[in-house]
Structure formats: structure tokens, C-alpha cells
């Protein structure tokens, strides 16, 4: 990304970088704010692949799937990389086109993905099968060597969880319980709610002891103390947005010919 930004005038590059930092910082906790920052970066430098990718993920997490797909396609065209292929396919699912996602799962681009990307593509394909209520097919899609491997990878918990969920859809609850347990065992960073799903199958109900409306065992309602943590007074809600200049206006016609609408100015 740094090399891409170096192609911009210095002040413009700094403004773009600041907004991209905020997108990354807020994407999980405040996705709508991250989306707003991404649109600023997009207005400033729409011909930078990293900006299009960031804008794509901000749109994706806020369920603006059509926008996300446009941005991911633009980034892919600029870089030539297939890295975003699985999330592009998942956007097709979000747009209610699981058949298209399955077509992408069988495309040559999948062979260009690393192992993590191929697993991600498998998860998307299984999700598309479930969208179409083809649960047994979803189960088969997820059956691979990596599913039963003893080695725990960053995607292991999610793969096992998806497999258990597909088994539930297929009416195979006993097998699903086993795989929810395996998913919970592999989930070291809370990427799934496998433990809760396992407890649900076992008839165990979790309650929040800090919820004032929940009665604890001694019959006394729990109370929750709200602590107002002091923070600095600096309001970073607005970075200098700059005048993005029409730095890449001469490329707009090319984008339109290839089906990528140029983003509207904020």
C-alpha cells in the first residue's frame, strides 16, 4: 500500500493514509464509521487498489454488497490478484445469487488461492448450498482433509463450525454436536459461537450475571455498574478530507467501459 500511495502527491497521500488507518481501526467495532472514512479515501484516490479494497471491506461488513462487489472487482483489475475471489463470491450470496457464488467456486481463479483462500472459498460454496437448502451438498462440500486435521490453523474453528451447522441443516444433530465441540476446542479467539451452540444442544442456558433483569441463584437481582471511562477530548471523527483533485478523472471512461462505476464524491 505504501508504494501505491507514494505515487500520489505528498499531502494527498497523507490524507488518504489517515483515512485508511481509521477504516482499519473501526471496521470491527464501528463499521458504519469505517464506511464513512472509506468513502472519503475513495473520493481522494479512487485509482489506488488498496483504497478500493478497503472501501470494499467497509461496504461488505455493512452489507452493502453491490458496492462491495464493485470495489473488489476494481481492486482485482488493478492488481491482477485472485486474493479477493472468495469474498467476491460471498457478495454474490449477499445479493441473493448463490448460484453465481457456486460458479465462482469452480472457476480457475480458485487454483490461484493459497490454502487459507481455498478454505474460505469452500466455506462460501457450502454457505451457498445452504442458502439453496441443499444441506447434504453443503456437508459434502466441507468434507476435506483439513477438516479432520489435528493441526489447528486460523480457519480451523470456522471450518468445523460450518460443518456442524451444515449437519444441523441436514438433520444430523448427533454428528453436529461432535463437530461443535471440536470447533469450540479449536476456537481460541472467539471467532465462532461454537460453545453456545454446543450448550444449546445439551440444553444448557447461559445467563449474564451482570444483567439487572436476571435473577441469580440467591434470588437477588444482579446489578451492573456502568463505568464512564475517561478518554481524551480529542474528536477524531473528522480528518482533513482535502480536495481529492480530479487526479484520476481521465480513467473514469475506462472504468465505465469495464463496468466499474466511479464512486460519487462525498
Which oligomeric state applies?
single chain
The biggest beta sheet is recorded as:
none
**How many strands appear in the DSSP assignment?**
0
Structural class by SSE content:
mainly alpha
Strand content: under 5%
Q: What level of helicity do the residues show?
A: 55-70%
Low-pLDDT segments, ≥5 res: 218-255, 257-266
Overall residue-averaged pLDDT value: 84
From the coordinates shown, what is the CATH architecture of the domain at 1-81?
Alpha Horseshoe
CATH fold-type name of the domain at 1-81: Serine Threonine Protein Phosphatase 5, Tetratricopeptide repeat
Distance between the termini: 23 Å
**Succession of helices and strands:** HHHHHHHHHHHHH
Number of helical stretches of at least 4 residues? 13
| Gyration radius over CA | 22 Å
The shape, in one word, is: globular
- Highest CATH level, the class of the domain at 1-81: Mainly Alpha
Amino acid at each position: 500500500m505504501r508504494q501505491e500511495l507514494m505515487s500520489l502527491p505528498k499531502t494527498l497521500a497523507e490524507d488518504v493514509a489517515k483515512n485508511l488507518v481509521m477504516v482499519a481501526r473501526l471496521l470491527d467495532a464501528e463499521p458504519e464509521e469505517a464506511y464513512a472514512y472509506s468513502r472519503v479515501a475513495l473520493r481522494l484516490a479512487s485509482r489506488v487498489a488498496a483504497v478500493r479494497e478497503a472501501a470494499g471491506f467497509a461496504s461488505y461488513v455493512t452489507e452493502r454488497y453491490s458496492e462491495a462487489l464493485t470495489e473488489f472487482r476494481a481492486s482485482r483489475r488493478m492488481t491482477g490478484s485472485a486474493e479477493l475471489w472468495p469474498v467476491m463470491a460471498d457478495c454474490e450470496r449477499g445479493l441473493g445469487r448463490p448460484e453465481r457464488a457456486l460458479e465462482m467456486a469452480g472457476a480457475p481463479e480458485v487454483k490461484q488461492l493459497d490454502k487459507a483462500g481455498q478454505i474460505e472459498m469452500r466455506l462460501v460454496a457450502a454457505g451457498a448450498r445452504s442458502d439453496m437448502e441443499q444441506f447434504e451438498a453443503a456437508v459434502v462440500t466441507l468434507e476435506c482433509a483439513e477438516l479432520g486435521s489435528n493441526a489447528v490453523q486460523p480457519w480451523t474453528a470456522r471450518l468445523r463450525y460450518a460443518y456442524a451447522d451444515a449437519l444441523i441443516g441436514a438433520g444430523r444433530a448427533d454428528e453436529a454436536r461432535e463437530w461443535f465441540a471440536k470447533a469450540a476446542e479449536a476456537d481460541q479467539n472467539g471467532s465462532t459461537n461454537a460453545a453456545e451452540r454446543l450448550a444449546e444442544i445439551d440444553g444448557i442456558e447461559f445467563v449474564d450475571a451482570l444483567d439487572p433483569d436476571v435473577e441469580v441463584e440467591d434470588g437477588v437481582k444482579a446489578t451492573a455498574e456502568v463505568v464512564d471511562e475517561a478518554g481524551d477530548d480529542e474528536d477524531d471523527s473528522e480528518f482533513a478530507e482535502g480536495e481529492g483533485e480530479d487526479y484520476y478523472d481521465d480513467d473514469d471512461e475506462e472504468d465505465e467501459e469495464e463496468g466499474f462505476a466511479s464512486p460519487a464524491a462525498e
